[in-house]
Amino acid sequence: MKLQRKNGLRATALGALAVSGALVLTACGSDDNTAPGDSGTKASAASKEVCADAKGQLRASGSSAQKNAMDLWVKNYMATCTGVEVNYKSSSSGEGIVAFNQGTVGFAGSDSALKPEEVAESKQICKGGQGINLPMVGGPIAIGYHLQGVDNLVLDAPTLAKIFDNKIKNWNDEAIKKLNPDATLPNKQIQAFHRSEDSGTTQNLGKYLGAAAASDWKYEAEKKWPAPGGQAASGSSGVASQVKQVDGSIGYFELSYATSQKIPTVKIDTGASAPVEASSANASKAIAAAKIKGTGKDLALDLDYATKADGAYPIVLVTYEIVCDKGNKAETLPAVKSFLNYTAGEDGQKLLSEAGYAPIPAEINAKVRETVKGLS
Asked: Signal peptide: which range, if any (predicted)?
C-alpha cells in the first residue's frame, strides 16, 4: 500500500504540473541536437506535430474507470494544443456507447468491447465504416474494503463470489478466517457495494468471477449488476466513497480511486506462490498475456482472468476508446486523431503507471497508433 500511496502522490503532482504539459508532450522521441537558443523553435515544431490540424471542441464520454487518466491526458494535451477543447464526461461504459451510437461524441470510453449488435448500430453513424475498439488504458480493478482493525486482507475468487452473491454475510465467516489466520476478524455484517448503472467495470469483475470461481458465480458477465442483495452506488467514485465511509464494507473500483482515498485493497489468492496485490506492475503482468481477438482494424483483447502466474493480478480491465474506422465527422476527425495519437503515444502511456493504471503492452500499443493514423 505504501507504494500505491506514493504513486498516488506522484500522480497528483503530475496533475499539478499539467500547466507545463508542453514539456511532456514535446518530449516525443528524438534526441535534443538543438542549440539553447533553438529551444523555442523545437517546442513549436513538436507542438505542431502533436496538434496537427486539430481545433475546436472535442466531446467524449463513457467509462469512469479511465477518468483519472483522462483528466491528466486532457490537461497535458490542452496545454500544448491550445486550439482544442476536450470535454470528457465520466459516466459509464454503457452511456458512452449510447452517446457514440447517437453521434453526439467524437469517441467513447468503454471497459468492454462493443457487442455485435452495437457494432451494427454504429454503422448508422460511421458512414461507410463501423465502430472499432482501441485499447488505451489498462489496470487493476481493486477490491477495496473498510474493516476497522484489519489492514491486511486476503481473499480468493470463490470467497469473493460468495460475498458479492450475498452467500457469505459476516466478516468472521470460516472461509475468510481460513484465508486470514493471523487477522482478528470481527463478527460484523458485510456491506457489499456495487455499481448502480451499466458498467464495464462490473462486467470485467463478472468475467473474473466466472473464470476463476465458475462453481460459485453462475451469472453471465454483463454490464448490469446481476446478483441479489448488496447496495448500489453511482460510478467508481460513488462506490469508493461508500466504502471509505462505511465500516464493514467492500466494493470494487479502479486502483486510482483506492490510492487517492487511501482505501486498503484485498490481496488475491490466485493459487500462485503468494497472494497478489493490486498494483499497476502486477496488472501489467496479466495484461501482457492478452491476445487480440478483434478482426480488421478492431483491436479488442482477450484477457486471461484465471491466471495463476506469480505476481499477475487477475482482476484487470482494459478501457477502449471507441471510434469510427471510417466515416468520422470531418469537423472533429483531426482532433480525434491528434488526441488519441497523444494518449497512445509514449508520453501519454507513461502517465498511466504514475496514476495507478497499467500501460498497454508495447506490441499492441504500436497497432493502436497505426490504426489511429488511418482513421478517416
From this structure: 1-27
Q: Cell digits for 90? A: 465520466
Task: Kindly tell me if the per-residue pLDDT of 264 is higher than 50.
Answer: yes
In Å, how far from its chain's centre is CA 100?
Answer: 18
Sheet of 316-324, strands arranged across: 84-90, 56-62, 107-110, 316-324, 131-146, 249-254, 191-195, 231-233
SS3 per residue for 318-345: EEEEEEECCCCCCCCHHHHHHHHHHHHC
- From 190, 137, 141, 152, select the one nearest 313 (Cα to Cα): 141
Are the C-beta atoms of residues 66 and 331 closer than 8 Å to each other?
no
The pTM assigned to this predicted structure is 0.79
Strands 107-110 and 316-324: antiparallel
Query: What residue spans define the domains of the chain?
Result: 2-137+320-373, 141-285
Dihedral sign computed on CA atoms, order 310, 311, 312, 316: positive
Is 2-137+320-373 a domain of CATH 3.40.190.10? yes
Instruction: Extract the C-alpha cell encoding 98.
Output: 449510447
Distance CA 141, CA 256 (A): 9
Run of H or E including 72: helix 67-80
**CA 199, 10, 353, 79: dihedral to nearest 10 degrees?**
80
Bin 311: left if φ > 0, else alpha if -120 < ψ < 50, else beta: left
CATH architecture entry for 141-285 = 3-Layer(aba) Sandwich (3.40)
Let me know: does 114 contact 322? Beta carbons within 8 Å.
yes
pLDDT tens for 89-140 read: 999 999 999 999 999 999 999 999 999 999 999 999 999 999 999 999 999 9
* Contact in structure between 101 and 122 (CB atoms under 8 Å): yes
Type and span of the H or E element at 205: helix 200-212
Q: CA separation (Å) from 230 to 144, 197, 239?
A: 15, 14, 12
